[in-house]
């Protein structure tokens, strides 16, 4: 134990230094397996709900510490004494329904008796603030990851730019490459640079309270980027730094361009389809002997258009297979129409033209040709060639065939479609055994006049 004189001197010194503050302080006297309070200030005694006098001489066990807690503290205290080196650390505490964090400073006192001076500062508020900041930082990182945003900051006065890992990846800059405004400027697509710099300059001058947004391409033009930025001004109103985020919008730009093209293509198709329907209506009306005949013929041709539309819609109007178009138009006749040929892709306008041609041939065969007789058949054969496809329509088993006195609207329509949208030609032969049609279809290419 300390002598009463030494103890009194220590108490007087510590109280003069710490009793007016919230700092817990005092002196530990070390024993083999525990420690005792040799001196404490008022804040330490108040923490344990005692007076300083009640604390003197009490051990860790007397204060209710568990053997594990005592062993842990004794390890630190003896290390401090043996090495004669001050120790400083943070640790969590729980006492009398309270919990928090202390910053502990330990220092060995002079003399042969193992005594350690301690100062404890309650840093609970700071720790909670740090934890809140860490939590906020984690949430920010999660938000940036979820939105695929790159984060950056520009120190204007020192011309230093901080980019996080995603920003560096977006611009293709290595992790160790220092970044300044000159480098950033060189990473902009040349045609976009004036607009980006104009927005930045206006924000520095206070436009929109320093907020601005820019959309530009990467230097090689392969990537579209959108930056949202905020200029920070100092107390004198001078621009000090710029904070911002950046996101890759290449997919969005491509989607908007695709949408624009689709709308333009839709407008084009609607106009063409309306023109086609109008032409079919006019020509069918001219050739129809009666209103009933007009309705039946006109309806059949419109349905043929619709069937081919279904094929194209299933393929997003990219293309259609020749066999599928023919099969749709001849489906009603079952195995009396036999199809044989390889896969051959048609552009959308070619598919529509072929659908109408096959509809005309099928309708005529059902009215006047092979399909009007019980045993009549039609063979549709095609083969691929370097310049397109060659299609043969061969009827057999129907009434005797003979050439018409003059070509009707159906023949004129098929000829016009074959030489126009189909990009080929068509010929008709009329042997007694049945109609024979040779149709040549060009390769996919630009739409020809219909």
From TrEMBL:
What protein name applies here?
histidine kinase
Q: What enzyme category does the UniProt record give?
A: transferase
User: Origin, by domain of life?
Assistant: Bacteria
InterPro entries noted in UniProt? HATPase_C_sf (IPR036890), PAC (IPR001610), PAS (IPR000014), PAS-like_dom_sf (IPR035965), PAS_4 (IPR013656), PAS_fold_3 (IPR013655), Sig_transdc_His_kinase_HWE (IPR011102)
Keyword Lipid biosynthesis included in the entry's annotation: no
Q: Which PROSITE patterns match?
A: PAS
Tell me the organism: Phenylobacterium kunshanense
Could you say which EC number(s) this protein's record lists? 2.7.13.3
- Which CDD domains does the UniProt record give? PAS
Q: Which reaction does it catalyse?
A: ATP + protein L-histidine = ADP + protein N-phospho-L-histidine
Q: What Pfam families has UniProt attached to this entry?
A: HWE_HK, PAS_3, PAS_4
- Identify the residues that the record assigns to the PAS domain, covering every copy: 136-207
GO MF terms here are: ATP binding; protein histidine kinase activity
């Amino acid at each position: 134990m300390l002598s009463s004189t030494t103890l009194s001197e220590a108490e007087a010194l510590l109280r003069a230094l710490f009793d007016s503050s919230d700092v817990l302080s005092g002196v530990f006297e070390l024993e083999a397996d525990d420690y005792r309070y040799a001196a404490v200030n008022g804040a330490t005694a108040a923490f344990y709900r005692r007076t300083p006098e009640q604390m003197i001489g009490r051990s860790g066990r007397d204060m209710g510490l568990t053997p594990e807690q005592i062993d842990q503290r004794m390890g630190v205290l003896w290390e401090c004494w043996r090495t004669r080196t001050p120790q400083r650390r943070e640790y969590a505490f729980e006492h009398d329904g309270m919990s928090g964090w202390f910053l502990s400073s330990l220092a060995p006192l002079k003399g042969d008796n193992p005594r350690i001076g301690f100062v404890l500062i309650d840093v609970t508020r700071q720790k909670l603030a740090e934890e809140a900041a860490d939590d906020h930082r984690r949430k920010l990182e999660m938000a940036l990851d979820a939105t695929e945003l790159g984060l950056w900051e520009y120190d204007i006065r020192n011309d230093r730019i901080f980019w996080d890992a995603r920003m560096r990846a977006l611009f293709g800059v290595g992790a160790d490459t220092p970044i300044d405004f000159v480098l950033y400027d060189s990473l902009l697509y040349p045609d976009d640079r004036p607009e980006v710099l104009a927005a930045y300059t206006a924000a520095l001058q206070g436009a929109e309270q320093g907020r601005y947004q820019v959309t530009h391409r990467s230097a090689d033009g392969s990537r579209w980027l959108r930056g949202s930025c905020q200029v920070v001004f100092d107390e004198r109103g001078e621009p000090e730094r710029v904070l911002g985020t950046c996101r890759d919008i290449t997919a969005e730009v491509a989607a908007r361009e695709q949408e624009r093209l689709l709308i333009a293509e839709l407008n084009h198709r609607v106009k063409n389809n309306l023109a086609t329907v109008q032409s079919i209506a006019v020509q069918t009306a001219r050739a129809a002997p009666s209103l009933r005949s007009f309705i039946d013929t006109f309806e059949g041709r419109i349905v043929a258009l619709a069937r081919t539309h279904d094929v194209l819609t299933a393929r997003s109007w990219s293309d259609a297979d020749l066999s599928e178009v023919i099969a749709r138009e001849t489906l009603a006749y079952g195995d009396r129409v036999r199809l044989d040929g390889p896969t051959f892709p048609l552009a959308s306008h070619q598919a529509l033209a072929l659908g109408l041609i096959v509809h005309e041939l099928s309708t005529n065969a059902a009215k006047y040709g092979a399909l009007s007789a019980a045993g009549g058949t039609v063979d549709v054969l095609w083969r691929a060639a370097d310049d397109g496809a060659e299609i043969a329509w061969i009827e057999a088993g129907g009434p005797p065939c003979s050439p018409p006195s003059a070509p009707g609207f159906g023949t004129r329509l098929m000829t016009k479609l074959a030489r126009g949208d189909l990009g080929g030609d068509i010929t008709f032969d009329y042997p007694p055994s049945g109609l024979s049609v040779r149709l040549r279809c060009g390769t996919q290419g630009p739409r020809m006049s219909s």
